[in-house]
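Q: Sequence in, structure out?
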Amino acid sequence: MNKKKRNAKHVTKKEEYLNLFPDDKPSETERVRSRALKEAQDIRKFEIDLYWKRTGFFWAFITVVYTALFAVLCKYVDCPIKFSFFVPVISALSGMGFFFSVAWHMVNKGSKFWQKNWETHVSLLERDEIGPLYDVYLNPKTTGSRWNPTKAFDFSVTKVNMWASTIMIVMAFSGFVGMNLWLIFKQKEVWYLVLLPSFFVLLFIFCLICKSNGNNDIEIEEANSDELNMIHIN
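A: Exactly. Output:
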């Protein structure tokens, strides 16, 4: 059954965006724009908190997978008779390390998207409510230093985390391929026990990348301006 498409239009100007949140109530607690700002601030903090919780979860899971891989690999190397039982287990564990490395990077990108989304809401709503608080900060060119170890600098923490997950993907993929080639070389007679788990790992990664778009059911009309780049789902 095909999922019904949701129509959406571009919101390309600040005036169009603010019109979505009427500001016609006299009371501060009743004004839609004021309540929207508070909600956006709360959701932004919630997204940041979730971002680091998810990172901790994936770090822990990846560590467990590679610890188990190391333990099984040691038993396989030390065993005088190379039991074929170890072959698919080693291949599967190395594949799981690669799979969860890819998943971690995708979660990082997704979290960064929604964090930036709510930061944009706060930036647009706060100017008429509390002033440009979110958009005023220290000048990093004069108050920080990229290379001085005793000074702060405005490194993007989320970008650093995404680079770390990217490096993890490269290392996990290299280990996955290298481990499978080593196993095939060691036990040529059971090469199929290596390739079977590898096939399923690559299939799951393909499905993860292609089927994880949460908004693939939205049809967006053409934009006529680029002041803002947001959409409003009808």
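The two ends are 22 Å apart (CA to CA).
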